[in-house]
Each structure stands twice: as structure tokens, then as C-alpha cells.
Amino acid sequence: MFNIQDITRPDPAIIKALEGIGSATASGELYKLGIKNPHMTGLTSWKKGKSVVGPAITLQWMPRREDMSANSEYADTELQLHRHSMYHAQPGDIIVVDARGDMASGVFGEMMLTYFMGKGGLGVVIDGCIRDWTHAEQLDMGMWLRGVTPNHGWQHKIMPFAVNVPIACAGVLVMPGDIIIADNDGAISVPAHLAPEIAKLSNEKNEWEEFTRMKLAQGGDLRKYYPLNAEAKAEFEAWLAAQTTANK
Q1: Which residue among 80, 108, 183, 206 is least crowded, i.e. fewest CB within 10 A of its CB?
Q2: Residue 138's CATH number
């Protein structure tokens, strides 16, 4: 029916290395590597406290054209491409949706989100809305959205058009299989080929930031410890060596 390509999923060790880094740290390290804007601006977490890392299944919506679109919510369900994005899902995946910033159409509702969660999906990142929030709110998965609506996707002006193609989600190019890092700060897209380097750099930064946080909490001088000057770097190296020895 549809010739939809599956995504290439990363080594689970890469995902593990990125977990706990946070979108802010990863975004800063991406900037140093030349990726200036990985943040999908305007999409906020509707499940506060949720933090996810996983590969992107991409879903593109386009302006509705009646000869290419179902005319009701349940008509020709197998021709509705947004369903097929979920058929391809595997545990740990995140669906990223270019819904054109539309605030009137519900890209997914409670039932489809429940299905995705049941398949092991971690979350959705949508430049648009979902519906059925009263029930969707109860689902144990991350949701980064522009908002919610009572409308289903066929009540207004957009339609699902393609799965696992490059998309523009809230101003960011997202390729199928890119790594999404999303938390309370927002959602960012990490190019898959840069993920190992981002994991390395971000974990190194988190180490010295842990030391800096401790020193500042103890009344340490901001000019010395953030960022570390030469004297503070020597202190940090000694502290890190002691931590490494203690953890052996």
C-alpha cells in the first residue's frame, strides 16, 4: 500500500550514553560542533518531569487536498498515513511530527497514543496539537506539543502526507533516525552521525559542572569556578581522580 522506509536505529550503547545528559547540555555541545539551532522552538513538555532519548520516526503533514485525503475520521483508515508511522514503531522510538504549527487539528488522539505506548514508544514531539487530553494526560509517555484541541485531524486544513522523510519540525530539520533528546527544557534533534561525539563531550561537561555546582554551593567564587580557571581545573582533576578511585 505504502512504500515506507524504516529508520536506522542507533547502537543502544549510544542511547544509554546520551541518557541523563539533558537537552540544554547537548544543545550547547551541538553548537560547538556547528549545529546552531537544534531546538524545536515553541514545543513544550505537557508531561513535566519526563525525559526521553531515542531515534526519530518522522511524520509530515501537508495542506489538505480533498482528492488525496480521507473525508472523515474513520474513513479508509489504512490510507491514513499517521497510523502507519506507528505501525513502524519499535520500543524506544519517538515520533516527530511536522504538523505545520496547526492549532486546530489533532494529529493523534488518546487511542493512537495508547497504541504507540503499548508498542514501547517513548514519546511524541509535535509541531501542532493532540486531542483527548483528559485521557492522554494519564499515559506514561513524553509529549512535546504546541497545544491541545478537541478536533480530529480531518476537521481542518492539514492531512498526513509522508512517513520517514526529512521534515521541518518547529524550524528544525529532522532526518529519520536522528536522535531526539527531550525534557523540561524542550526537545532537540541530534544528527545521528554526531551522537557519539555529543555523548562524549556532554558527559565530560557534566563531570566538571557537577564539581562546579558543589563549589558554588559552598560559596566558591563564580569567576573561578564557572567556567573553571586554571587553578580550578587543577582542583577539578584532583577531585575527579578521587571520585574515580572511590568508585573502583
Answers
A1: 206
A2: 3.50.30.40
As for how many domains the chain has, the answer is 2
Distance CA 63, CA 219 (A): 56
- Which is nearest to 82 in space by CA: 57, 104, 65? 57
Domain co-membership, 231 together with 162: no
Tell me whether the omega of the peptide bond preceding residue 191 falls within 30 degrees of 0, making it cis. no
Q: Which three cell numbers stand for residue 200?
A: 562524549
Report pLDDT for 1: 56
**Torsion angle in degrees (nearest 10) through CA of 100, 105, 108, 111:** 180
Query: How high is the pLDDT of residue 21?
Result: 92
In a domain, 6, yes or no: no
Whether the Cβ atoms of residue 57 and residue 176 lie closer than 8 Å to each other: yes
Q: Report pLDDT digits (tens) over 170-221.
A: 999 999 999 999 999 999 999 999 999 999 998 888 889 999 999 999 999 9
* 8 A C-beta contact, residue 52 and residue 190: no
- Domain termination residue (choose one: 192, 209, 228): 192
Q: Is 153 or 129 the better-scoring residue by pLDDT?
A: 129
Q: How far apart are CA 52 and CA 123, in angstroms?
A: 7
Alpha helices for 75-142 (secondary structure H): 81-87, 110-118, 133-136
